Structures are given as C-alpha cells and as structure tokens.
Amino acid sequence: MVKRYRSYFIVALILFLIGAWLGGAQASSLSAVLTPMMHGLKQEAVTLKHESVLATALALFYNNLRVSLIMMAGGLVLGILPFLVVIANGALVGYVLATLTAKIHISLWLAILTGILPHGIFEIPAYLLASAYGMRIGATEFRAIARAGKPGMWAYLRKDLWTIVLIVAVLLLVAAFIESSITPILLRLAIGG
C-alpha cells in the first residue's frame, strides 16, 4: 500500500512546504486571505481556553479529522481540493510562525520546536496522507477519463480507504492530545511567560 501513495505523499509534502514558505515569506501580502483563517483559529482557542485537556483535544481532533476527510473525499473533484487544502494548511503554518516570531520576538527555530513540532510530527503526516489519498483519487479519475488506467485501480482505492482513515485518525488523535497539553506548556516556556 505504501508504494501506491509514496509519490503523492511526496507531492503533498512539497506543496505543504511551498505553502509554508509562501505563508511565512509573504505574510503581509497574504494577510487578507490568511487573517480570517487565523481569526477562526483564535476564536476556537478562546472557546477552548477554559475547557479541560480532554475536551480541547477532542475538539481539535474532530476539526482536524473533518479537514482530512474533506481532503480525501475532495479527490473526487479531479484531485483539486486536496491539492489546494494542503497548500493552504502549509501557508497557515508559515503565516502563524511569521506572526509568532514577529509579535513575540522568539526565533523561528524555537517557534517551530515548541509550537509546531511536538504535535506537528503526527498532525502533518496525517494531513499529507489524507491529501495523498485525495490526489490519488483525482489521478485515477484522470486516467479513467483518458482510458489509460489499469484495471483494478478503483478497487485499490476502496480497499485502502479504511486503513488510511484509521492511520489518519490515530495520528490526529495523538496530535490533538499533545497540542492540547504539551504544546502550550512548551510555548509558554519558550516565550518566558
């Protein structure tokens, strides 16, 4: 199964990194697009601030799983949606890092190590896998339209669906618990507050 998605996973990773670079390097230019997304995240954070770690983790898990499932199902639209969502997620990460380093005056590497890496090591691969699956669906559609596909390509996608959903869900669940419990502590230590 890994071989079937490796190239799509690599494409998703490249798109995510391009998005992160754009979000960080062009933060001021992209603020009109990314600020509403940030505002939504801030509102969610304020709502969850007084919740327990469990309630916060479950809310984060639900939101991230929903986005991942949208990326997977969005592959049915010729793979365009997972392509765009993975770039947008990367851009949001880059924008958050640029904003964090500018407003709080901590180094980029410290922001990555404390604010992204602890939960991102699980969350980002989950997003990339969901995006890879969605892009594979889109590529299979293109091949079917061109009648260049191999017999059984759709069968592989159907067979892999629940395995990928399970892997993505487990990764996102672990990420959500880390993001709701460990990441805030590390960020407070990094900021010195």
Considering the chains and any ligands shown, give keywords for the structure:
193 residues, mainly alpha, globular
Q: Please, how many domains?
A: 1
The geometry reads as globular
Number of strands: 0
Mean pLDDT, all residues: 86
> Low-confidence segments, ≥5 residues, pLDDT <50?
none
Order of helices and strands: HHHHHH
Major sheet attributes: none
Helix coverage percent: over 70%
- Structural class from helices and strands? mainly alpha
Tally of contiguous helical segments:
6
What fraction strand? under 5%
Radius of gyration: 18 Å
- Distance from N terminus to C terminus (CA atoms, Å) equals 46 Å
Describe the model.
36% of the residues are buried. The protein is mostly helical and 193 residues long. 88% of the residues lie in helices and 0% in strands. It has six helices and no strands. Helix 1 packs across helix 2 (27-48), helix 2 (27-48) crosses helix 4 (80-104) and helix 4 (80-104) packs antiparallel against helix 5 (108-146). The chain has one domain (2-191). The radius of gyration is 18 Å and the shape is globular. Keywords: Membrane, Transmembrane, Transmembrane helix. Pfam families: SpoIIM (PF01944). This is Stage II sporulation protein M. The chain crosses the membrane at residues 69-96, 108-130, 161-178.
